[in-house]
Design goal:
single chain; 191 residues; mainly beta; SH3 type barrels; OB fold (Dihydrolipoamide Acetyltransferase, E2P); 3 domains; five-stranded antiparallel sheet; Rib_uL2_dom2
Length: 191
């Protein structure tokens, strides 16, 4: 049987199951009553891992939650089509399909073979975690012109092989491999 977790024991970044859906605690606030006989309440700000919705809900300290059946597996990106994006689980070698709404704009930074972390709930893929940085080749960028730094802007736009555009320093040329931080989508250095 799954272990039960008291609401008062839920802390930031913990996972729990509520109303048959997995949640991640974003913030927990405990309010203890000043009067005798009053109940201790726990206000949780939590994200539904299936819908990505964030809600605030107040629970009694003794309310119980199950631990969700969550696991993270390493997978490599294969390809995408109209039905979704496909990944190869690196342990079981099964193909995992993630729908376009789960993928959001992650495809802007994915090349075939890129290793990612796929989050699974009850054995089904529900989310994706990109690596901290990815290496991509600059497909097109304007050549640097002497005196460009006078405008105060020392970066220029560069279109990468996946089609995404990022700001890069003036010295970056077409064909160069660069590192891009996946969270901020900013230039992180030459590869």
């Amino acid at each position: 049987m799954a272990t039960l977790l008291d609401a008062i024991d839920v802390k930031r970044k913990m996972f729990f199951e509520f109303e048959n859906a997995p949640y991640r605690c974003l913030d927990a606030d405990i309010s203890t009553p000043t009067a005798r006989g009053g109940q201790t309440l726990v206000r949780l700000k939590m994200r539904n891992l299936l819908t990505r919705a964030v809600i605030d809900k107040t629970f009694k300290a003794g309310d119980k939650f199950k631990e969700p059946d969550l696991q993270t597996v390493e997978a490599s990106y294969l390809y995408s089509d109209n039905d979704g994006s496909y990944f190869l689980d690196q342990e079981s070698f099964e193909t995992l399909n993630l729908s376009p709404d789960i993928m959001d704009n992650a495809l802007d930074l994915l090349l075939e073979g890129t290793l990612v972390q796929v989050e699974k709930y009850n054995g089904n893929p529900i989310g994706l975690e990109l690596p901290i940085q990815v290496e991509l080749t600059v497909k097109y960028t304007e050549p640097a012109v002497r005196g460009d730094t006078s405008s105060g802007s020392v970066t220029k736009a560069a279109e990468l092989e996946t089609g995404v555009t990022v700001r890069v320093p003036l010295f970056i040329k077409e064909g160069e491999k660069i590192k891009v931080t996946t969270e901020t989508r900013e230039f992180a250095g030459r590869a």
